[in-house]
Every structure is written in C-alpha cells, then in structure tokens.
Amino acid sequence: MKILVINPGSTSTKIAVYDMDKELFSKSIEHSKEELAPFKKISDQLEFRKETILKALKEAGFDLSEFACISARGGNIHPVPSGTYIVNEKMVQDMLSLKYGAHPSNLGAPIAYELARQYNIPAFIVDPVVVDEMEMVNKITGLKGILRQAKDHPLNQKAVSREVAKSLGKKYEECNFVVAHLGGGISVAAHRKGRIIDVNNALNGDGPFSPERAGDLPNVSVVEMCFSGNYTKEEILKMLAGNGGFVSHLGTNSLKEVLSRIEQGDEYAKLVYDAMVLQISKWIGIMAVVLKGEVDGVILTGGMAKSEKLVNDIKEYVKFIAPVYTVAGEFEMKALMEGALRVLRGEEEAKTYE
C-alpha cells in the first residue's frame, strides 16, 4: 500500500514514497531562482511543481496508479482542529486564492488534489500550519478585537511529541510537553493531553526572535516606525518576517555563521545570540506556566536543534522545569505519511474541510 508524500518549500519540493510505514524513496527537488522567477504568485507555480514531481517519480520507476493515496503538507486555510483532512475543492480554492496568507505550503493540497483526481485515489493533508487548538483565554490580548493567532509548526511538533511519549511508555494524549521548534521561525507550544493549548505565532506575530523573524517588539516603537514615513507597509511586514532577528542584527540567517563569528571574537554576534537563547528560554517558561508546572518534558526540535551549543545553552535555563529531550531535525515527511496511514488503517477518521 504505497503513499506519496509531498512537501513544497520556498526553493524545493520534497517528495517521498512509502510502502505502509517503510520509506522506499525520497528526493528534494531543488528550484533555482531562475526557474521560479517567471511566476508572480506562489499559486502560479502549481503546474510547474506538479510536473517536476511526476518527472521525479517516473525517473525513479514509480507509477501513481499503484498508489493508495497522497499526503501533502497543508498551507494557509482558515483555522482548523488538529487531524488528517481529505483534500476537497474548497480547500484547494482557499489555498490558491492566498486569502489566508501566501506560503509555498499552499501548493501541497492543490498538487495532491490534481494528481489524486487523475489517478482516482484520495488526497490528504495532516496538521496544517493553521491548526488551532488554543484555548480562548490564551488568545485574549489587551486590545478588544485583536486576538493572538496560532501559526506554528504543528505537524513537526506533534510528530516529535508522539516519539518522546512513546519513549516514555506513554501515549501522546497522556502527556504534557513544552515543545520548541527551532528553525528560521521559532514556535514554542504548550501541549496538554494531545492538544496544543497555547503557542506563539511563529510566522509573523509574537514569540522569541529567530534567525529571520522579529518576534515580540515594544508596541510604541513599532507604531512610530509605521508612521515615520520612511517605510511602506510591505517593507515593515518584511522586517517582521524575513528580515528580522539575525538578519536584522547580523545580515545573515545562518546559525552556523553566527556561531563562527562568535568563535572569532565578534562580541555583538555573541550578544544577539545570547539574547535569542534567553528569549527562547523565557517562552519555554511561559508555556510551563500555561501547563501549571505539570510538564513531562521539554522537547527541542527543528533544524537548529542540531546545534549542540544552542541546545546546551537553552538547557542551562530550562532544565529545572522538566527533563529536556532533543529530537533534532524535522519529521514532516514521516508525520504526513503517518497521518494518512492512520486513516487507511481505520485508526482515525479523515476530517472534512468546510
């Protein structure tokens, strides 16, 4: 029972083929700036990316007519509960319209939908970026009409939580975790008994600053910048997500480069790095409070969790809260497979997007 997994990113499309839970094939199809330049909007890349996937599968000797389903990364739609969703026309329209936000992951479901219809098999998405299980008390801000939003890394966060729970001899639904996904954007979440009840908006909202995002900022300073006449709305939004964090301070989004500068005696690089470590740790503490101190473990995951120095520096701040588990890297492809497989096995019922 073969499953095709599709995960579109900014400059690549990752695909994998599984036979049940056994990986048979994986490839990251790279897309150069020149290849993507003709496309004005992300949604315009649909046909191009679909064809690159079909070409890669053909070269690897796979026939989609032999597949049981397709599982794709879900992009920006309206907020939904956690779970596996069958891809339908409304979902595809919402993602391609970009009305809930533009992100390469918006291409996952539309590509899967077209291929699935062609080969008469189901297509799914699993725990899209807009999964919203936040309790209302955690959404309230000091201004009526402005609510905190959940935009984070639920697919990877829940996948690593299940792995750690399994290592503890428990089910994910029996555990309380604080999970920090450390990447270009950083999300820190409180997981209580299988639900993400609080998390920062890692895309363009609150939370610690990261290699590319500004995170929490003093309100008045931001307002003054907005009305200074020196910046357009688009420029300010890019400062918050894309040109914030390390990029703003140090001109790079590379943790490796920042650590290299520190080793060479760059004191400002060290100051900025130390500040990021402290902010991540503060947010882990915030989420421990959300869980009222009942924390089975703090989990560090994402690409930056591969840095032993970063992990150890965060541990120094948070090890008093609970045991710290490191699950470095991203496990989105496996999580997409597992979500589809749970449906195929009858362990979970696919939800309908409405």
UniProtKB/TrEMBL annotation:
Listed GO biological process terms: acetate metabolic process
InterPro entries in the cross-refs: Aliphatic_acid_kin_short-chain (IPR000890), Aliphatic_acid_kinase_CS (IPR023865), ATPase_NBD (IPR043129), Butyrate_kin (IPR011245)
UniProt keyword Signal present: no
This protein's UniProt keywords: ATP-binding, Cytoplasm, Kinase, Nucleotide-binding, Transferase
A Gene Ontology molecular function term of the record: butyrate kinase activity
Keyword Cytoplasm: yes
Enzyme class: transferase
One GO term describing the cellular component: cytoplasm
Catalytic activity of the protein: butanoate + ATP = butanoyl phosphate + ADP
Record's subcellular location: Cytoplasm
Assigned EC number: 2.7.2.7
PANTHER family in the record: ACETATE KINASE (PTHR21060), BUTYRATE KINASE 2-RELATED (PTHR21060:SF3)
HAMAP family: Butyrate_kinase
Family: Belongs to the acetokinase family.
Protein name: Probable butyrate kinase
